[in-house]
Every structure is written in C-alpha cells, then in structure tokens.
Amino acid sequence: MDDLLTTAEKIRSMEIRGAGRIAVAASAALRNYALTLGSLDIEEFNIKIEEAAKVLVNTRPTAVSLPNAVMLTKKHTSLTVPEAIDEIVASSDRFIKNATEALGKIGRIGAERIRDGDVILTHCNSHAALSIIKTAFDQGKRISVIATESRPRRQGFITIKELSDHGIPTTLIVDSAVRLTMKEVDLVVVGADSISVNGALINKIGTSQLALAAQEARKNVIVAAETYKFSPRTLLGEMVEIEDRSADEVIDPKLLKEMPNVKVKNPGFDVTPAEYIDLIITEVGAFPPAMAFAIIRDYLGIELDHH
C-alpha cells in the first residue's frame, strides 16, 4: 500500500500531472498493489482493492481519466484471488498499452485537420494536443504555434519547451492576450480533462474564454481527447466536479494575511459548451461533440452504478 499511497500523493501534489499520465500511473499503482494481495481470500481482496481505488480516485476530482482508469483496471469477475490478480494485471497492461498508443493515433487523425501555413493556438500542456501539432509539423507542414502561459501554474512553459525542442516556431502570450491575438490564429487545438455526455469540455481554466474568442472570430476549435477522458457518470446526471486549488498558487500567503478582507478563488478548470467545439479527435476517430454519448457507450464499456 505504501507505493500506492506514494503514487496518490504525487497525483494530488501534481508531481504526476496531465490526465493521461495520471490515468496510466493510477492503473499501474493499482495493478502493482493487487500483486501484493495474493495471500488474502477473495472477499478481503475485493475490499482492499476497493479501498485502494477510492484513495486514488479522491486525489483529483476533475480528471475523469483517473476514475475511468481505476474502474477499467479493477473490474474482474474471478472467484479466486490468483485469477482476480491475473485479470487486473491483464486489464492494466491493456489500458496502459492503449493509452500509450492513443497519442500516436490522435496525432495522425488530428494532423489531417491542419493545413500548411496554419497558425495554431493552444492552451495549458496537453500531450494529445501536442501530438497533433508535432505530427503535422513532421509531415512537413510549415506551421507555427501560439501558446498561453496558463496561469497560475504556467504549464504553458512546459508546452513552449516541448515545441521548441521539436523545432516548431512558437510564441508565448499571457492568458489575457487571447482575444487580441485570435485574429492571427487559424485553428485552436486544446486537450481535455473530461468530456461530459452532452459534449461539453472540462479543461484547464481559461479554455472556455479562449473558445468564446474563437467563436467570435469564426475560428475552429479542435479538442484532442483519448476515449477514457469521456465521463460516464454524467449519464446519470452527475456534474463534473470543478477542483478548487490552493490560494498559494496565486498569491504569497504572507501577503494574503496582510489583507483580511481579501479571499482568493482558484478554480483549476472551466466548462466549454459543446456549441463552441467543432470536433473532438480521439484515438478511434474524429467526432462532433454530439456523439459523446456514443463514445461513452461503445468505447468505455463501463457499467454504471449508483454508488
């Protein structure tokens, strides 16, 4: 359990960050934990696995990739512990393989939407979005990228480093310059933390105003998202919980103490309505947001319950 708790803490503290990496780390942690439970009977085994699953899922409430990865990993129908462990190991290995291969597939499908000479605007640091951009560049398309800082944690700095290392001409802008800059942009490509059944996108704070500016300027918005970013729980009417993060990310706590009448709100994510999104690129194809339900039904294969 110690290793699993270490992984959970790394996810909570954002040492492991990015929805895809979180999902893979959680699946691997649950698999490795299951391998240590061989001496238990099946009832005890199932209780321990459920407890471990809860620990992982509770670390980051908004990244739906986390509960999806955990659900897909822990699900088994075995009546003996050795068989249950084998099933969990196989499920985890399959999930991690599919998650790894998904980025390449998204890159190839999404690159079809990028034309030679395009200026692409991206936000935060999305491995799926960057896969599309890098693939288009590798195909010989002369593209350039405008990347936002993505305050308060400035994940945009990771993005510009990755793009620069790949040889792609990149411009960094502050988040509040998005509307002014939109006239220079041909296409917006962003990632996803979660996609609800109605096709709405939950992503890094600032995504919705970027999409609004793109709508106003008649620029297409493409979302890059593995199928495990879709949220089955929204079928039952649940809202995706928006994570509120620490004020320390925004302001020095000492300064805040000197201002008793000031509080800080630091939501990590926002919701972009489906009507602002032109296309969602997944590893199984490009879909309009209205097809979110079909993706949840056909590709996640998660049985919904009311717990």
From TrEMBL:
- The protein's name: Ribose 1,5-bisphosphate isomerase
The biological process GO terms on file are: L-methionine salvage from methylthioadenosine; pentose catabolic process
Q: Sorted alphabetically, which InterPro entries does this protein's record hold? A: IF-2B-related, IF_2B-like_C, Initiation_fac_2B_a/b/d, M1Pi_N, NagB/RpiA_transferase-like, R15Pi
Extra notes? Answer: Reaction proceeds via a cis-phosphoenolate intermediate.
Q: Which residues bind substrate?
A: R17, G18, A19, G20, R60, N203, K204, K229
Name the Pfam families for this protein. IF-2B
A GO molecular function for this record? Answer: translation initiation factor activity
Q: What does this protein do?
A: Catalyzes the isomerization of ribose 1,5-bisphosphate (R15P) to ribulose 1,5-bisphosphate (RuBP), the CO(2) acceptor and substrate for RubisCO. Functions in an archaeal AMP degradation pathway, together with AMP phosphorylase and RubisCO.
Name the catalysed reactions.
Answer: alpha-D-ribose 1,5-bisphosphate = D-ribulose 1,5-bisphosphate
EC code(s) of this entry: 5.3.1.29
- Per the Swiss-Prot or TrEMBL record, the active site comprises C124, D193
